[in-house]
């Protein structure tokens, strides 16, 4: 018996099982699937908004490209390590100042980090890196070049995949560690201990401190954030292009596909979405239970 | 209802008389111990039996009568039947035999409560209501000396009866020794037939030894008391000396032998079969040990072998050191094409080379005294071959002490590295070990922690092959030394614990250690009872060894193979042989 069957007896059917009814247990009437809802709560993406968000991913890709460019320059001894060190220091100070300026505008709740704590962190970084750089230099002496390149590439890929794009400020452990591991592998290939030290400081700047600044920028000055992302992308392409043209072309293609093609695909495929909801779903607690805590 | 009568073989041709023995309670059987001949006075027989019962603790009774009429003697059937009234019993056996025939005829007279007699004859075997009688012939001397296994552990209460019939038979015969001392040539009121010993005159050497053993035991126990007093002087109980003496196998062996001597020198005779065997084993293995030791000593001191050995020792130690140096040089290069970190390699290699240099200087310092030490040390070999082996093991341990040190350094370094690596690998993935819950949890780290953690992880990871190689090499060396020492200890253990006395007894007097009995049909004629011959089944050699092994500080592997491999992999220090401490027996 289905909804199109012969009309049943005079008693209407009720959707209960604790009462004996003259209908079989699996009987349904024409109100079957009345409560089915399709695509409830679906978001309508707009193309340019998605492109703007995807720009962040492209930005990170270009960061990695910039880092590799710097390494290539150092390896070919075109860039002296002192220059890199001083410019890293200046960039760090500038970035710190910017960060402070942006966050002082917003009253943040909770304990802010004092300048002393930041200085202490910086001192620990620098001393450790400087102390370990002779050891780090000899680490991959006996490993073949291909292995080193393969390991670094793998680690940088892991870094890109596991990067916390939604909230980059407390850095994800795996992404940061993978990036640092790759930078140590690459830095140990450089000609001198000072080169290693400079490279590692640069890596710290690019992978650990730059995302914090980006986070504050995104929160406090979203307009400028997009501009910065685009600047970084262009910088990456130009930098890589000065070393290898093929690399630059590859990077452009990657950036284009990530920032322009993928959002397009997402918006196009959105219309094929077909989710069904109904009273058979798992219950979700929407109430705010924090009132029970006090 | 089958009645079993255990009949001694020596009484097969005895003259007519009374059967003396014991009924086995709980089973339908009787053991005949002796035959008392005519003429006798019943009162004297009863007195004799009571005296024997008091001396031996066995419930002796008159079982019945035995008649073997010679030519010309009338049968004394009616006289024998009348005897049953003199010795009132529940059951009375009348056994008779004809000369020339093999089988016996047995009549059982049962006396029920009212005192009336009922009589049943044993005829053919297919008549079921009548009582059948089986005669089991046994050789009295062998059963008296034999011990049935498995023996009860500990001291059984002599008054409780063992449940098995065979055990009761053996025990009865063994305990009735006072009965067998009555000699057939004695001029006493009673004449009996049973097993006779050859007389005390034949074993005069054994008697002399027994007499001499008492003062010898007292001398040994006095010496032992002196030795124990020396050992317990306060100065020897300081911690380093005590620790050292527990590690040196010579000291362990000395303490072990002292224990043995104490067991041997107790003036009381052995209580129970197990004590006796234990003492015998200890004595024989000690004598064999000392004999072998004296042989070795005579070889050592002849033809100036000691000087040869001493002269060989220095070059041997030098050779070992040189081999080690070459090994380290090879490791400091690029061994087997492995990727070693050069700086760490050099550091470790130089560190170990310096140690070897120290060791060689020490050995050269000691070299003038080596011959003297060997000469005096060789004197102690007369205490036994086990001492020689223990001394050898200790000397090997001392000479390879540097290998042990290297192994400990390498293992500690490796263990530290593995531990650090595993902890930092967890940090790499953003996880942490939760000590409370004993599991891995996620954790949000600070940037500083992440940075330093990653640096250290990279360093440790790339230095791992170097450390692992050094660890591997020194572990292998250490395992070789440990294996050699283990073989020495196992042989010492073997000499200590192998029950030579018990094996000798098993080979030369197999009836002394019995596992069971086997029966052979002697005579199965119709009209007479069934006759079986009981022969003693000796214990298997493997069971002898297992039962009579002297418990020693047996040396056996502490870990299974899987646990050993896991320990090696993690870098834990391994001490593969475990010594069980001597248990007080």
From TrEMBL, chain A:
Protein's GO biological process: GPI anchor biosynthetic process
Annotated localization: Membrane
Any single Gene Ontology cellular-component annotation: glycosylphosphatidylinositol-N-acetylglucosaminyltransferase (GPI-GnT) complex
Residues spanning the signal sequence: none
Protein's UniProt keywords contain Transmembrane helix: yes
Transmembrane intervals: 196-214, 221-241, 247-267
Protein's membrane topology: Multi-pass membrane protein
Pathway(s) per entry: Glycolipid biosynthesis; glycosylphosphatidylinositol-anchor biosynthesis
Cited InterPro entries: Plno_GlcNAc_GPI2
Keywords: GPI-anchor biosynthesis, Membrane, Transmembrane, Transmembrane helix
Domain of life: Eukaryota
Xref: Pfam families: GPI2
PANTHER family: PHOSPHATIDYLINOSITOL GLYCAN, CLASS C, PHOSPHATIDYLINOSITOL N-ACETYLGLUCOSAMINYLTRANSFERASE SUBUNIT C
Similarity section: Belongs to the PIGC family.
Protein's name according to its UniProt entry: Phosphatidylinositol glycan anchor biosynthesis, class C
TrEMBL record, chain B:
InterPro entries, sorted: PigQ/GPI1
A single GO cellular-component term on record: endoplasmic reticulum
Entry keyword annotation includes Membrane: yes
Record's keyword terms, sorted: Membrane, Transmembrane, Transmembrane helix
Residues annotated as transmembrane: 219-239, 282-301, 347-366, 373-400, 406-428, 449-473, 479-502
GO biological process: GPI anchor biosynthetic process
Keyword flag Transmembrane: yes
Organism domain of life: Eukaryota
Protein name: Phosphatidylinositol glycan anchor biosynthesis, class Q
Gene: PIGQ
